[in-house]
């Protein structure tokens, strides 16, 4: 691929860098009306996408961080009433982390702000280009995540 691949990687890196900037996160949480750290937003967004309570280890694996990191943030989210612990139906000794209605609302608002940003950025794109971007981004995300998990983590991340 050569130069084409270099351009693709550079564009992807530019997008990821922009989305991961501290100021971008501040704008996101301000627009969503929530005061949350980036890991907090990642956790509630993951739980929203999962659609069901998850164990701390599963959250950590999905976010590719260590469990104690997730535990610290879950404790703060729990204190704020955004998540709570529920018994694991598969193992009564274990707990899963569930979004509260307030946590789900915060996650939805953050998602909506991000969607609005993309909607504005893609406003001039044709429907065909938007569909192609969606299809290719899903494919890219799946392939890159699978490759990195297989190569460096020894296991594929669970959704």
Can you offer a commentary on this structure?
By secondary structure, the chain is mainly α. It contains seven helices and two strands. It has two domains: 3-121, Orthogonal Bundle (Arc Repressor Mutant, subunit A); 122-159, no CATH class. Strands 1-2 form a two-stranded antiparallel sheet. The protein is globular, with a radius of gyration of 18 Å. The protein starts with a helix and ends in a 6-residue tail after the last helix.
Characteristics:
Arc Repressor Mutant, subunit A, 159 residues, single chain, mainly alpha, two-stranded antiparallel sheet
Radius of gyration: 18 Å
Structural class: mainly alpha
CATH C-level category of the largest domain: Mainly Alpha
Would you tell me which CATH topology of the largest domain applies? Arc Repressor Mutant, subunit A
CATH-defined superfamily of the largest domain: Winged helix-like DNA-binding domain superfamily/Winged helix DNA-binding domain
State the separation between the terminal residues, measured CA to CA.
30 Å
Silhouette: globular
Number of helices: 7
Helix fraction?
A: 55-70%
- Number of individual domains: 2
CATH architecture of the largest domain: Orthogonal Bundle
Parts with pLDDT < 50 across at least 5 consecutive residues? none
Question: How much of the polypeptide forms β-strand, as a percent range?
Answer: 5-15%
Return the average pLDDT rounded to an integer. 92
């Amino acid at each position: 691929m050569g130069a084409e691949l270099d351009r693709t990687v550079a564009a992807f890196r530019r997008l990821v860098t922009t989305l991961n900037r501290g100021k971008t996160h501040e704008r996101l949480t301000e627009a969503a009306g929530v005061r949350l750290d980036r890991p907090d937003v990642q956790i509630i967004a993951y739980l929203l996408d999962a659609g069901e309570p998850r164990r701390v280890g599963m959250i950590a694996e999905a976010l590719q961080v260590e469990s104690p990191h997730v535990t610290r943030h879950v404790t703060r989210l729990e204190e704020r009433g955004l998540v709570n612990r529920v018994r694991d139906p598969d193992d009564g000794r274990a707990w899963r982390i569930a979004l509260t209605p307030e946590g789900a609302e915060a996650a939805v608002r953050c998602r909506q702000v991000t969607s609005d940003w993309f909607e504005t950025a893609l406003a001039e794109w044709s429907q065909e280009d938007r569909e192609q971007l969606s299809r290719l981004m899903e494919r890219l995300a799946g392939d890159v995540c699978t490759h990195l998990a297989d190569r460096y983590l020894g296991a594929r991340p669970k959704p």
